[in-house]
Amino acid sequence: MSATNDKKLIVGNWKMNMNVHESSIFVHKLSKEIAVHRDVEVVVAPTFLALQPVSLQIERRQFKLASQNLYWRDHGAYTGEVSASQLRGLVDYAIIGHSERRHVFHEHDKDIRSKVQAAIRNGIKPILCVGETAHQRAAGETTDVIHDQLIGGLANVTSEEFSHITVAYEPVWAIGTGNNALPDDAKKAARSIRRQIEHLYGRKSAESLRILYGGSVKSDNAASYLATEGIDGLLVGGASLSVHDFSVIVAAAHDMEND
Ligand code: 13P
């Protein structure tokens, strides 16, 4: 774990799964399985629709909430969008620049940096996702892609604001494929992210940055990432839809801290 962050961060990204009712039942079951650990921060990211009801249900010491996206304008004629100012007070975190947003919805760094800015302006901590495609990896471009995405996403973030940022390394080829990156890949990516952040914001910021790994994290491989140098937590997709698997992953983070 990096020097000044003493909590592992485990985030469950439910993507476009579960309706409001199912989300409530799921959170209720999860709350029975997950113990509150001072050394682990647990965050769930349900559909926008479920954020409000789930927020009334949860004990914030046990879970925090993230949105899976947000829009960067605070209000106005933007049909179908949800702004950071509407999410203010409801979520602690926002996942921004997820590869599905980049690749399915064609979000560019310009959008992503505006979203990062909007989140910070509204007291929401951005989880900025970066990661290369299989094609970029094969071409040996992983480091360059990550660096471009960091520079693109963080362009307007000041040194003071940077303390609110978490970076998630999610190689696109590992997402939803069962083809998870090796812990050593995650370690190399984390090192390269920290080097880049040191260059942009100085060593202290680089050391205290929390970096998550995401991409086919399961209950049986989570511990190997949590034990990896430079990795401070996990961004979990499919396995976060199982109460059992997600609780095992959270427990693994706690065990890691207490080994
Ligand atoms: P999977 O864990 O399903 O591969 O998804 C990862 C992810 O995209 C989390 O944001």
Q: How would you characterize this protein structure?
A:
The protein has twelve helices and eight strands. The chain has 259 residues and is α/β, with parallel strands linked by helices. The protein has one domain: Aldolase class I (TIM Barrel, Alpha-Beta Barrel), CATH 3.20.20. It has an eight-stranded parallel barrel with strand order 1-2-3-4-5-6-7-8, surrounded by five helices. Strand 2, helix 2 and strand 3 form a beta-alpha-beta unit. Helix 1 crosses helix 2 and helix 1 runs parallel beside helix 12. The longest helix has 19 residues. It starts with 7 loop residues before the first strand and ends with a helix. The mean pLDDT is 95. Bound molecules: 1,3-dihydroxyacetonephosphate (13P). 1,3-dihydroxyacetonephosphate binds next to strand 8.
**Rg (C-alpha, Å):** 17 Å
CATH homologous superfamily assignment: Aldolase class I
What is the terminal-to-terminal distance? 13 Å
The H/E string reads EHEHEHEHHEHHHEHHEHEH
CATH architecture: Alpha-Beta Barrel
Low-confidence stretches: none
Strand order, sheet with most strands: 1-2-3-4-5-6-7-8
Q: Treating each run of at least 4 consecutive H or I residues as one helix, how many helices?
A: 12
Number of domains: 1
Q: Determine the strand fraction and express it as a percent band.
A: 15-25%
- How would a textbook summarize the main sheet? 8 strands, parallel, barrel
Bound molecules: 1,3-dihydroxyacetonephosphate
Helix content: 40-55%
